[in-house]
Design a protein that fits this description.
InterPro entries: AMP-bd_C_sf (IPR045851), AMP-binding_CS (IPR020845), AMP-dep_synth/lig_dom (IPR000873), ANL_N_sf (IPR042099), Beta-ala_Activ/Resist (IPR052091), PQQ_b-propeller_rpt (IPR018391), PQQ_rpt_dom (IPR002372), Quinoprotein_ADH-like_sf (IPR011047). This is Beta-alanine-activating enzyme. Residues 11-311 form the AMP-dependent synthetase/ligase domain. It contains 19 helices and 58 strands. The protein is of the alpha+beta class. Among the domains are: 5-336, ANL, N-terminal domain (Rossmann fold), CATH 3.40.50; 498-576. Strand 41 and strand 42 (782-787) form a beta hairpin. The longest helix is centred in the first third of the chain and has 17 residues, at 35-51.
């Protein structure tokens, strides 16, 4: 090839003149361009370059992906020997000064785009299709002697693993890749190849050239599955090369129903550029009848482009640790230089006699101009049974308080958690923090933290876990730890009071030790007797130092001595920090924390200040009760004799029973863990008095008499409980996070039987139907019915996302409705699980349970809250769901709406605003602001609303209608 890619391009145009070379999608329409058309454009651009005496050196191309890219690189090689793509958003001035271009071509898509470059006007401008090419002549000022005279292109490393380098890539370096990949991926002139990679990232040359040499089509289109895989398969893609990070940003539904569906046109998905963390997700989402072949590519820009390839058989690979580097591509060798003779791991080095690139820019102290015959990749490999596996980068292994920690190992463990989409683990050396970023459609940071603390050694526990919608990627589509480090905002030291320091210490102790307790419970114990280690002490004090530097540094040696109790450490610290004087003042204002404390306000606190006649509703706080910590659980009402009581659990571990009218506490049960489940109240035989049963985070289940809180029995099953129990025929049924339902004798607490429903957790409340079936949903998307008599699963179905909402019954328990997180609502028969109808109109995630209201015979309303800040009302008529109304509130709604009257509905937003809505129209007629957030579902009795709040209180709010 005497004139580089120009010769390749001309040869293809001669063989396949009428083949479609480029397809471009724009607003529902496709424009197509044949090879013969592009040949004409190439010659036209060449003529204009020749008129400017462009006959040597380097051509810079400032462009984004567009229809003339193949023509421009062919024309550049016809005129010069080397070209380099520049991103318009880059610091062009510094790159231009460094590379010393002979010519620069700037391709603009809009007429009003500026036509100057470094305050220079173009020497020539031409228009091709709807694109304007501005040509700048820099020959007189260019004296670049670094680059080699071969036909080549210059690529720049992304900088994700070190300082960016400019790499000159000769044709003979990348040509073996094109030959190998054409055969391996079976590329023919029939293929449609997605032009997905940014031009500045060297794998884009694979997409352009593998298309060109085979007479195939290159598709330019938005990265949306509906567009890439349309119903009309004429323009659907067959080959897609991308980074794992970009691919895993798609939703589970898009991957499952479009990309990996049985009808998908995609022959090959080639993932490369960074480690593949996500095998479990691929296995779950790829349909058994989908024929897409999966490949993992490995390589470095310094030996552009790919060094090895592995075809992935998902039936044989169980985890990310089992993804091999694969087979070497032509003219390339991979070796692992072992760290020790006895070690299976070492640094990965690439070697080639022919595939030699040149590093153009200088490194520190030396000038890298010689051709690279081998490349130290900076990666670590492990050899097992003759196969090389990627084990991260050498800079992935960091020193954390004297212990080596492998960041990639933590990422692999995180990806074992089923609901994680993508993740990245970042070490911030200055504040000494290990931070995990992850994206998920339904998983919370707390749930991931609980998962990791079961899977990882304490030296690997992250200091912070942050959930984001999508992890940011750099210009090359890779997750960049540098960008994530910049995202992290340090907590600025703030003035501390005695109380806030105690709260801060208690909070960090709970996180570090993964336990729940109060200050009174730990004040007389030392750090090690609580389960602490020297490593956890150092890690915890480091985090405390971010908020209160003196406090964190001061208490560390006292924690490590094992002689001082936590209260002694606290008092010594307060004295040293000269805060002991503030203690007395502060304690006078501190509310009593005794078990019998309650706060009742009968002074009638009106929220709306104007007269009753101008307000549709007045709200009056009848009383509030301080539980000591957040009340996320939903209160339960029960009546005994002539008295009404309300019972609820708290994150403090207290379960309280309060007189609903006066606010006076009747009794209290204490457990050692958070209580988020609602109390189930029961007064059926063989029980001799009204009883309550509830489960806690640590697996404790307690049964107690409601009238006086005398404990009947207590057991611990060892698995988290967030689900409300149910009762039938003398037995309680409790679901837990191990995916099992336990059948428990109501009188003794003895576990009679364990019914396995699913492998994943059950969070939704259990619902009893016809005194014969228990309905439930799980976090793995299973919906099921358990038959009480036989203690077996009557039927089981699979939904596409987790179920947090409790099932709801209607039409005399004939039908059950399940709401899954992705917004889909399903109706099935209770007895056999036969599908009746499905509603897909919700535009956000559903965590709220459903409220069902019968309107008349064969007509119901179903009302629920949604993460999109809306409350939805669906009509069910003749077994057909349709939207009746939806109302925008001020924040997501996780709480279940409920009825105030025949005509009014109450819904609580996460931000603590209670909204009263008209049941028929959804119009909001009144709002009431709680002091803090709420996830609790209100319980209503007469004109009283009972609800929990994150300011630690249970509220009784009286409402007065002025309608």
């Amino acid at each position: 090839m005497k004139r580089g890619y120009y010769d390749v391009f001309v040869r293809t145009c001669a063989i396949y003149p009428s083949n479609i070379a480029i397809r471009q999608y724009n607003n529902g329409y496709y424009s197509t361009y044949t090879y013969s058309e592009l040949y004409g454009i190439c010659e036209y651009i060449s003529q204009n370059l020749q008129q400017l005496n462009c006959t040597k050196g380097i051509v810079g191309l400032i462009s984004e992906r567009n229809i003339i890219v193949p023509c421009v690189i062919a024309a550049a090689h016809k005129s010069c020997t080397t070209f380099m793509f520049l991103d318009p958003s880059q610091d062009l001035e510094s790159i231009i000064n460094e590379i010393k271009f002979n010519f620069i071509i700037s391709i603009k898509t809009k007429e009003n785009d500026p036509d100057t470059l470094l305050n220079r006007r173009p020497d020539k401008s031409i228009v091709v299709f709807n694109l304007t090419l501005h040509i700048f002549n820099f020959q007189l000022s260019s004296t670049n002697s670094h680059y080699g005279p071969e036909y080549s292109f210059i690529a720049m490393t992304s900088g994700s693993t070190g300082d960016p380098k400019h790499i000159q890539v000769p044709i003979q370096c990348i040509q073996p890749n094109l030959d190998d990949l054409t055969k391996l991926f079976d590329i023919t002139q029939e293929d449609v190849i997605y032009f997905s990679t940014p031009l500045t990232f060297d794998p884009s040359m694979i997409e352009i050239l593998i298309t060109c040499i085979n007479g195939a089509s290159l598709l330019i289109a938005p990265e949306k599955p509906d567009i890439l895989f349309p119903g009309n398969t004429q323009n659907a893609i067959t080959f897609w090369q991308t980074t794992p990070s970009k691919f895993f940003q798609f939703s589970n539904a898009d991957i499952k129903n479009k990309i990996f569906s049985p009808q998908s046109t995609l022959k090959v998905l080639a993932l490369g550029g960074e480690p593949l963390n996500g095998i479990i997700r691929l296995k779950e989402l790829k349909h058994a009848q989908n024929k897409t072949k999966l490949f993992m590519l490995y390589g470095v820009t310094e030996m552009s482009c790919w060094a090895s390839v592995a075809e992935l058989d998902l039936t044989k690979i169980i985890s990310d640790l089992e993804v091999p580097l694969g087979n070497c591509l032509s003219e390339t060798d991979i070796i692992v230089e072992r760290f020790k003779e006895t070690s299976d791991t070492g640094k990965i080095v690439l070697m080639s006699k022919t595939r030699k690139c040149v590093v153009l820019n200088k490194s520190i102290g030396t000038e890298e101009q010689s051709s690279l015959k081998f490349v130290d990749t900076g990666d670590i490999g492990e050899i097992r049974n003759g196969t090389i596996y990627y084990r991260g980068r050498r800079d992935d292994v960091i020193k954390r308080f004297g212990h080596k920690v492998n960041l990639q190992h933590i990422e692999i463990v995180i990806m074992q958690c089923p609901r994680v989409k993508t993740c990245s683990c970042v070490w911030l050396p200055k504040p000494f923090l290990l931070v995990v970023y992850f994206s998920s459609e339904s998983l919370t940071s707390q749930e991931l933290s609980d998962f990791l603390k079961c899977k990882l050694d304490d030296k690997q526990w992250p200091d912070k876990i942050i959930r984001v919608d999508n992890l940011p990627t750099n210009a090359h589509g890779k997750i960049s730890r540098q960008m994530l480090a910049q995202m992290f905002e340090k907590v600025l030291p703030i003035p501390q009071s005695v109380n806030s320091l105690k709260v801060l210490l208690l909070k960090e102790l709970k996180v570090s030790l993964n336990k729940t307790f109060t200050y009174d419970e730990i004040k007389d114990k030392d750090f090690f007797s609580l389960g602490g280690t020297s490593f956890l002490a150092i890690s915890m004090c480091n985090k405390l130092s971010l908020t209160c530097p003196e406090f964190g540094k001061f208490i560390l040696p006292y924690l490590l001595t094992q002689k001082s109790t936590m209260d002694q450490v606290m008092q010594i610290a307060l004295k040293e920090l000269h805060m002991e004087n503030k203690t007395k003042k502060r304690l006078k204002r501190t509310r009593s924390t005794s078990e019998s404390h309650f706060s009742a306000s009968h002074s009638v606190k009106k929220i709306m200040e104007s007269s009753p006649s101008s307000n549709p509703v007045d709200f009056i706080v009848a009383w509030s009760f301080d539980t000591g910590k957040c009340v996320d659980a939903s209160p339960t009402l029960f009546q005994h004799g002539y008295k009404l009581y309300v019972t609820v659990g708290s994150h403090s571990g207290k379960i309280v029973v309060v007189d609903a009218i006066s606010g006076l506490m009747q009794g209290l049960i204490k457990v050692k863990s958070r209580v988020e489940a609602s109390v189930y109240c029961c007064n059926e035989a063989p029980l001799t008095a009204p009883c309550g049963i509830v489960g806690a985070h640590d697996g404790t289940i307690v049964c107690f008499k409601l009238e006086n809180c005398i404990e009947i029995w207590r057991i611990n099953i060892g698995f988290m409980i967030k689900s409300k129990a149910t009762f039938c025929k003398g037995q309680f049924y409790v679901a837990a996070y191990d995916g099992n339902i336990r059948c428990i004798d109501a009188m003794t607490g003895k576990i009679i039987l364990t019914i396995n429903v699913a492998e994943q957790a059950i969070s939704a409340d259990l619902v009893l139907a016809k005194k014969e079936f228990i309905l439930l949903g799980t976090l793995s998307g299973v919906c099921a019915s358990t038959h009480i008599e036989t203690k077996t699963i009557a039927w089981r179905g699979t939904l596409s996302s987790p179920v947090f909402a409790a099932p709801v019954l209607y039409d005399n328990d004939k039908y059950v409705i399940f709401a899954e997180v992705n917004g889909e609502i399903h109706c099935r028969t209770v007895e056999k699980g036969i599908k009746i109808w499905k509603y897909q109109g919700a535009k956000g995630n559903i965590f709220s349970s459903l409220f069902v209201k019968e309107i008349d015979k064969l007509r119901w309303q179903i009302i629920f809250g949604c993460h999109d800040n809306k409350v939805y009302c669906i009509n069910i008529k003749n077994f057909q769901p349709s939207l009746n109304w939806k109302t925008q509130l001020s924040s997501p709604v996780y709480s279940t709406p409920c009825s105030l009257s025949d005509k009014l509905i109450i819904a609580a937003s996460n931000n603590g605003i209670l909204s009263i809505l008209e049941a028929e129209t959804g119009i909001v007629i009144a709002d009431y602001q709680l002091p803090n957030e709420t996830f609790s579902t209100p319980a209503v009795y007469g004109d009283y609303i009972f609800i929990g709040c994150r300011n630690d209180n249970l509220y009784a709010i009286k409402y007065v209608l002025n309608l």
